[in-house]
Amino acid sequence: MLFHVHMTVNIPLDLDKAYVDELKAKEKNLSQELQRQGKWTHIWRIAGQYANISIFNVDSAGELHDILMSLPLYPFMQVEVTALCQHYSSIKNEEEAH
User: Which GO terms label this protein's molecular function in UniProt (predicted)?
Assistant: First the structure.
């Protein structure tokens, strides 16, 4: 299942910098591992914001939920999730039909 996920991180300014740096490092390591597994693709980072738009390719909505909940920065995130499906007019589908 494919999901479009828009994540905006809002870290409180008064949070300990060393703690924030540790969370960011853990987040980076986890996201890179998920990318190597083909589960998380960063599409782009939104300019001027600590936010990104990504595609997750997972077996179920439950797996996506578990992944998002495991992210070290999740407690500071605003997350919008949209399920995706392949559109019938896809060029790939037209080529397969011929």
Answer: muconolactone delta-isomerase activity
